[in-house]
Write a structure and sequence with these properties.
The structure holds three protein chains of three kinds. Chain A is mainly α. Helix content of chain A is about 60%, strand content about 0%. Chain A has helices spanning about 5-30, 30-50, 80-110. The longest helix of chain A has about 30 residues, at about 80-110. Chain A is elongated. Chain B is an all-alpha fold. Chain B has one domain (about 5-485). Helices cover about 75% and strands about 0% of the residues of chain B. In chain B, helix 10 runs antiparallel to helix 13 (about 315-345). Chain B starts with a helix and ends with a helix. Chain C has two domains: about 1-50, no CATH class; about 50-230, no CATH class. Chain C has eight helices and two strands. Mean pLDDT of chain C is about 80; it is low at about 230-235. By secondary structure, chain C is mainly alpha-helical. The radius of gyration of chain C is 23 Å and the shape is globular. Classes of the chains: A mainly alpha, B mainly alpha, C mainly alpha. Chains in contact: A-B, A-C, B-C. The interface between B and C is large, with 56 and 53 residues.
């Protein structure tokens, strides 16, 4: 039992769970703000998965401070650098989408996407 | 020899600089954008002349790959960067006339960054760098589609944003799986090491990345954003989006399949999907009223054709696909820019309101017909040679499936010809309308005229163009030369 | 109907990930992992002189990605400025805010500013760097902006600072083109004494530029979102 419930299973479940919930919100929700929240959740889930891919058991943060134990005891630093970039990019997209949502609300008076259907076939 | 990094750095520096002077001198933004666009075009031509025979690899930050990032400039990258900078430059000239309001410095800043994103995607040899430039491209196009801030533009931009962001999530997931299983992010290094990694993870990663880029490349069934986005954007942006943005995403999918992973077992599936996309695009274009929607659905159809061309998996087919990209970029941007001009002059977007337009605007009628004929593939325009090569390559495969698909492609071409003929008939019959339309402003005359001239005289240079596209196609398949050039 | 298809797709995806990917990813023996990151880790102190390996990757080994990320932030700030143009200029009634909120924000602001500068300046020694530090400074600014009248939102001033900070990043990179190694963003300054503030070559300079850019950009973006008012006519101000 202890072999299944360990930190890796937990983090993997959390990341896949966030991605699944986020994409479900985008597909099935009608309110625009909830769709944007779903995108944000999916982004967070993927970022957790990227950091997880650099994890090595029982090792510590890759910072060479005064009391550090040398590079044999550190996790992989590259995925953390990738996640720094990915978080900022996700934040940029969310900010832009919220600005578009504000303008859409001004034009249509509602945030319900089934009513924002000016462009037809 | 110009350092290829300047193709990326100079537009970014100009884009950072433009908002500083935006309050003081609004028209200065146009001059800066013009000179940067011209510089990019000239630099791309220089780089093309140097790298068409010998690819080069440019190292960034002084750390050799795979530890650092590098740019790989071979024939494929050179040809595509010329297409991108050329179409971008002409669209920019067109927009000098029509984008004139208070926030126009922001427009030119974002336009330069869109060009940077596309050029960066084509030049880079590192998959995370590819993702970052892809995001630059996507975010600038979301903001530019919404530039007019009217109902249609905002709704289209929102749809585009939501679908594009799901695509980014999938691509990031694929990159994470690749890094987990192979341990490196450099494309040449992945091509070297992927066979030792777990096959299941690699296949899932490839599927995720193809789906993610496929949303941006508008493959069926992921293309529901395209008709809205390309028809509601300002016309110069529609020309740019249809001209190279969707093709660049498609080239990246092909790079993943051919160059990095040799995953050619996807190609039969892509042949069928390509023909379905083609038929769906051409059939839907037939019953559209709005002229820009017609052209947007036609873009979907052409992407299906290019996808089919690449999935033939012979050197002639791949070269035909790249040739068709050049043809579509030139013809479709000509069509979109002329459609934009007609919409401005008549104030209406519906085709049925264009009765007799070509009689009072003769220049416009001629360039529209030239663009349409080239897209359909009538000789002696440039589109004939590309489509002919694709069909020859498909038949040379001697497979029943490909013969059937080729027949469907020809059927799609007949549909395409029929709706363009319908539009031309409306434009040329009917009474001559209000006088004084015949004078065309220079900012519109120059891009439309130049594109039309290129389409018409290119039949002289077909062999030269074929030579370059053959080299570009060989560059796409040749893994060993790629690994040698990057890793030494 | 759409919900049902969505549910089926999502749960199919989740099921697939859990059975196949989880079986590979979770029990994998990762103690002898070979990857580019581990190679960088072994050489980073010698090659760059930075104590924080993640920072040396973000600024030096993958500095081009950081340039792209700065560009993405710039694009979203431009997009927000574009979309928010033309609303009624909204003067927030700050007399209604409570006394505790106003005084608290006035007291908090200097500490947040100082803390943000500390995080930016020590980016190569401790976790943090330009991006979190810039966000902290921007948060300090808009707490005060939202609750009191001390700062007026000056859009143009922030744009000038942001533009020059971005240009200085690119200029620092172009200097690298003139060094013997002839490539963009080379670490051309000397590495200094390890584990002090003035070490690690150009990393503190680039992080300072990024920190100034991010803080002015975010303040401008949130100010744009906050100051211009959009809404139906029937709402009261």
């Amino acid at each position: 039992m202890n072999n299944i419930i360990n930190i890796e299973t937990l983090i993997f479940t959390a990341s896949i769970g966030l991605v699944v919930i986020g994409i479900y919100l985008v597909i099935a929700e009608k309110n625009l703000i909830k769709i944007i929240i779903g995108l944000n959740l999916a982004d967070s889930g993927v970022n957790i998965f990227i950091v997880f891919s650099g994890y090595i058991k029982n090792k510590t943060a890759p910072i060479f401070s005064k009391g550090s134990l040398g590079f044999e005891n550190m996790v992989d630093p590259l995925p953390q650098a990738l996640v720094l970039t990915a978080i900022v990019i996700g934040f940029g997209v969310t900010a832009l989408s919220l600005a578009i949502a504000i303008r859409l609300y001004k034009h249509y008076g509602t945030l319900d996407i089934s009513k924002i259907r000016g462009l037809k076939w | 020899m110009v350092n290829p990094i300047l193709l990326i750095i100079v537009p970014i520096a100009a884009a950072f600089f433009i908002p500083i002077i935006s309050k003081a001198a609004k028209s200065l933004a146009k001059y800066i954008a013009f000179f940067v666009g011209l510089f990019n075009l000239i630099a791309a031509i220089y780089i093309f002349m140097h790298t068409i025979n010998t690819p080069i690899s440019v190292i960034i930050a002084g750390y050799k790959p795979p530890v650092g990032i590098n740019l790989y400039v071979g024939p494929l990258a050179a040809v595509l960067s010329i297409v991108i900078t050329f179409i971008g430059f002409l669209s920019m000239i067109y927009s000098f006339k029509y984008i004139n309001d208070d926030s126009s410095p922001l427009f030119y800043s974002m336009f330069l960054l869109l060009l940077t994103g596309a050029i960066g995607m084509v030049l880079t040899a590192d998959i995370f760098n590819l993702f970052v430039f892809f995001e630059i491209l996507c975010i600038s196009s979301y903001a530019l589609v919404a530039y007019d801030r009217n109902r249609d533009g905002l709704e289209a931009s929102m749809k585009y944003l939501i679908q594009g962001s799901i695509g980014s999530v999938l691509i990031l997931f694929g990159i994470a799986l690749i890094y987990f299983s192979i341990g490196t992010l450099n494309m040449a290094d992945i091509a070297l090491k992927y066979q030792n990694a777990n096959k299941n993870l690699i296949t899932i990663a490839i599927i995720l990345m193809i789906t993610g880029f496929g949303i941006e490349a508008a493959i069926f069934p992921l293309n529901s954003w395209l008709p809205d986005a390309h028809s509601s954007a300002p016309s110069s942006i529609s020309a740019v989006l249809s001209g190279f943005v969707i093709e660049v995403a498609l080239i990246i999918i092909m790079k993943i399949i051919f160059l990095i992973f040799s995953a050619t077992y996807f190609l039969t599936f892509f042949a069928i999907v390509g023909v379905i996309t083609l038929l769906m695009g051409e059939l839907s274009a037939f019953k559209q009223e709005n002229i820009k929607r017609v052209l947007a659905y036609s873009s979907i159809g052409q992407i299906g054709l290019i996808l089919f061309a690449f999935s033939i998996n012979t050197p002639q087919g791949i070269s035909g696909g790249i040739f068709q990209i050049i043809n579509h970029a030139v013809s479709k941007s000509l069509l979109f820019l002329s459609a934009g001009y007609v919409i401005h002059k008549t104030g209406s977007k519906n085709v049925s309101d264009y009765k007799g337009i070509a009689k009072s605007m003769p220049f416009l009628g001629i360039v529209f017909i030239i663009g349409a004929l080239s897209l359909i593939g009538i000789p002696p325009f440039i589109g004939f040679f590309s489509k002919f090569n694709i069909i020859l390559a498909a038949i040379s495969k001697h497979s029943v499936l490909y013969i059937v698909l080729t027949a469907l492609v020809l059927l799609g071409t007949i549909f395409e010809a029929s709706y363009f003929f319908k539009i031309a008939k409306i434009m040329y019959t009917g009474k001559k309308r209000k006088e004084g339309y015949a004078k065309v402003p220079f900012a519109v005359l120059f891009p439309l005229g130049l594109l039309a001239i290129i389409i018409v005289i290119s039949f002289i240079y077909t062999n030269g163009i074929l030579n370059y596209t053959n080299k570009a196609g060989a560059d796409l398949i040749n893994k060993i030369a790629f690994i040698h050039a990057v890793l030494g | 109907m759409r919900k049902l298809i969505g549910l089926i797709l999502i749960f199919g995806f989740a099921f697939y990930m859990f059975t196949i990917v989880a079986a590979i990813v979770i029990p994998s023996d990762s103690s002898e992992k070979k990857s580019v990151g581990i190679d960088i880790l072994q050489n980073s102190v010698r090659q760059t002189g930075a104590a924080n390996a993640v920072t040396s990757i973000v600024v030096l080994y993958r500095g081009f990605d950081t340039l792209g990320e700065v560009t993405v932030l710039f694009l979203s700030a431009l997009g927000i400025a574009l979309l928010m143009k033309g609303g009624r200029s909204f003067k927030h009634k700050t007399e209604d805010e409570s006394f505790i909120l106003k005084t608290g924000s006035h007291l908090l602001f200097p500490f947040m500013f100082l803390f943000g500068i500390y995080i930016i300046a020590h980016g190569h020694l401790t976790p943090g760097g330009g991006f979190p530090g810039g966000v902290i400074i921007a948060t300090g600014f808009f707490i005060v902006l939202m609750t009191s009248d001390v700062f007026k939102f000056r859009d143009y001033f922030l744009t000038i600072i942001e533009g020059f900070a971005g240009l200085s990043f690119i200029v620092l990179g172009i200097v690298g083109l003139f060094t013997p190694e002839k490539s963009f963003l080379v670490n051309f300054m000397n590495k200094g004494v390890f584990n002090t503030v003035f070490s690690a070559g150009i990393i503190p300079l680039i992080y300072a530029a990024i920190g100034i850019k991010v803080s002015s950009e975010l303040s401008g973006a949130v100010g744009n979102l906050f100051v211009s008012k959009y809404g139906r006519r029937s709402e009261n101000e």
